[in-house]
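ok here's Apple domain-containing protein:
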Amino acid sequence: MTSSCYILLVVALVVVANARDLSRFEQLARRVLQDSDEGMVDNFKLRTHKRKHMDNSEEGFYVFNKRGDTGSWTKIGSDQAIPDSECPNMELAFGTDLKTCEEYCTETVGCNAFNVQPQAHGSCVLRQCDGFPTVVNPYKGYDAYGMKDNGKWVRIATESAITDDVCDPTSIIYGKNTAECQQICESRSSCTAFNMEIYGKQCVLRNCKTDSPKAQAKANYDVWVWKKS
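and the structure:
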């Protein structure tokens, strides 16, 4: 079968495949490509749905876009994968390894996580998450990675709290300690700070426009802010 026939078959699979059943889609696509030459697999990338440029105009072809991220790639799990319910899939690429998959995601607008078969000529599933992904499911042969901002948590005030007029509240978390509230806040793109009730194990997540918000005196509360490096 010629290369053009392979491409037509794969395009047909894209049309009929359920984009949310990525594992079945990948298996079908791989079955079509398994007899093709290595060079074709190395350079072939499948789109699972249309992406949007930063100007919100739809694109009909694959384009790399520099995002200028200052974060670092963090391995979330081995023999595990980020599911669609946690982060929508953006694209599926074949013939990649870990380094290539990192480059694809870094240069693709909106991509901040991926599942990858780390060996040479594996597959790479780009994903767009709302914050750092925290949910992974068992998936043999795949590793999951997420982009984590370079920075650290800083306690900027004690016996104090950020009020609603300074930073918008996003949610209240009960029964968690400081480290757990930090992890929850990191996983949500809208959260940049929180008030921590020391004795009651309650934190109020907040969205601040600055990493130095003004806090007011309030007993038994500490203020934690994420400061980028």
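+1. DSSP finds five helices and eleven strands in the chain.
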